[in-house]
Amino acid sequence: MLENSGLFISFVLGTIVGSFLNVVILRIPVPGESIVFPSSHCPQCKTQLKWYDNIPIISFFLLKRRCRTCEKPISWQYPFVELCMGLLSMALLAKFSLAPQFGIFFLYCASLLVIIFIDLHHQIIPDVISIPGIFLGFAFSFFNSSLLWSDSGIGILLGGGIFYLIAGGYYLVTKRVGMGGGDIKLLAMIGAFQGWQSLPFVIFFSSLTGAVVGLAAMRRQKKGGQTVIPYGPFLAGASLVYLFFEQPIQLLMRNFFFPG
């Protein structure tokens, strides 16, 4: 009973943080916009939201997906981000209990969610998230019993270095920018939080899923090689998969590369 109540509390905490993440997603790409002031308001009519219109997930459905004042539609992104952060919070508590890793990876998952949606909307990965994330990931490695600080440091160097070489090589061959600097810094951040051991899977899985979606986008948009899709969400998604399934993934990779 106590365990179930703890999971429920962690879910509620996650949805509350998810509500704030929606503000971050909306405002960070806007130059000079504060994520604190003004308080939450309708992006259409700018009316400040009452507390009862800002309850995570619930208010969206009580309002029937419309602003109380201007009646303009509210994006499904708002409850979706809140739900995702709530579920991630529950999963983290189930995996780490109240060990320091819970707090470390709670912040990490929140950062990845913000990166996913900003990159989807604007095709940018803000330096204000990825660069501090690199330093925080390395600093947290000293408090993370499951990750050596040296593995975090190597993860930063390899994560940033591998993609830098790939991006540079692609540009030399095609004279086109195929990978932005934001992706390079994001992979360095992933290496900082999850160590260099996570990088082979993250690169492979993100490339595989990105290629599948990219081919579908090419077919739909009919732009051929000019089709552009953001890569950050695939990197972040692969990182989240590795976070919760690290052991079976490592076992699978060892059996694949070193059978017998």
Commentary on this structure:
The protein is mainly alpha-helical and 260 residues long. The chain folds into 2 domains: 1-98, no CATH class; 100-260, no CATH class. It is 68% helix and 0% strand. It is built from 10 helices and no strands. Helix 5 (127-140) packs parallel to helix 7 (181-194), helix 6 (149-174) runs antiparallel to helix 7 and helix 7 runs parallel beside helix 9.
A few lines on this structure:
The chain is mostly helical.
- The termini sit apart by 44 Å
Shape field: globular
How does the helix and strand content classify structurally?
Answer: mainly alpha
Question: Which residues sit in consecutive blocks of at least 5 with pLDDT less than 50?
Answer: none
Listing every helix as H and every strand as E from the N terminus to the C terminus, the arrangement reads: HHHHHHHHHH
**SS summary, helix count:** 10
What would the average pLDDT be, to the nearest integer?
88
Radius of gyration: 20 Å
Please give the number of β-strands.
Answer: 0
Largest sheet: none
Total number of domains: 2
Helix content: 55-70%
Indicate the topology.
Layout lengths: L1 H26 L30 H5 L14 H20 L3 H23 L4 H14 L8 H26 L6 H14 L4 H23 L10 H13 L1 H12 L3
Helix pairs in contact: 1-3, 1-4, 3-4, 4-5, 4-9, 5-6, 5-7, 6-7, 7-9, 8-9
What key phrases describe this protein's structure?
2 domains, single chain, mainly alpha
